[in-house]
Amino acid sequence: MKDLTPSEALEAVSALAEPARRALYEYVAAAPDAVGRDQAAEAVGVSRQAAAYHLDRLADDGLLSVEYRRLTGR
């Protein structure tokens, strides 16, 4: 997570008021390892597109950090 100004922190926390976004945040934050979009979507019962949108928002708000890697083994 990046360092947030007080204003950015308030905005980030307010983003968690959206139920699907909060569920995704709680799932990812509790996971012992990195979580893919498909895995997160399935875990909280939303579409992959919805999960991608909310996960991107959480990353943009500084609540999650992002890493890119292939999960297919190729």
Task: Please tell me about this protein's structure.
It is built from four helices and no strands. The N and C termini lie far apart (28 Å). By secondary structure, the protein is mostly helical. The radius of gyration is 12 Å and the shape is globular.
Topology:
Elements: H1 6-15, H2 19-30, H3 37-44, H4 48-60
Helix pairs in contact: 2-3, 2-4, 3-4
Structural class: mainly alpha
Arithmetic mean pLDDT = 89
Q: Give the % helix.
A: 55-70%
Round the Cα radius of gyration to an integer and report it: 12 Å
Number of helix segments? 4
Low-confidence stretches: none
Query: What's the shape?
Result: globular
Strand content: under 5%
Helix/strand order: HHHH
